[in-house]
Amino acid sequence: MSRGLRNNNPGNIRPVRNQPNDGAFAIYRTPEEGWGALGRQLKGYANAGLDNVASIISKYAPAADHNETGPYIQSVTANMSRRLGSDVGALTRLDLSDPRVLKALMQSITEHENFRGASQYFEGASFDKEVLAAAQSQWRSKVVNERDKIPSRGSVVVNQNITINGADNPRAVGQAVAHETLLAQNRYGQRNLS
Description:
Number of helices: 7
Number of strands: 0
Largest sheet: none
Helix content: 40-55%
Order of helices and strands: HHHHHHH
Radius of gyration: 18 Å
Shape: globular
Strand content: under 5%
């Protein structure tokens, strides 16, 4: 059993003050309590202005905490696309007031944090009740700021200056540009930057 399932914490949420924890992640009394906490956290981000997978995951699992945020975003978008039966890109605007969309995001994070198929442990009426309550929540996360907001698809502009040493070597320039482009793609969870 994974750490998240042992802790009834499918999203591996960090503890708040005086909350039972295992030294790194919160421990919840029941699977329903942990499932509801994940839903409320994600909806709190959405209520604060994070409206796509790239911005939500960049806040939820930041690279500064030693997460591989780019692959995490790709994992969640692929899983959500499969669950919802439509293409969900990193910058697709999500309506987390829709329980179906919120549940797909929760399931995708659960499977990334634990293992493929882990979300099956959070199926049933009691878990759906938690999703519905979270989708209706008006609570707004206080840890979200303007820098955390990545614009949804259609309004994305990426400007990046690249400093290249050895510009007299065209091959080195091409390799440096390719490397920086790959880093930017991983950072923003996009396949094509223009």
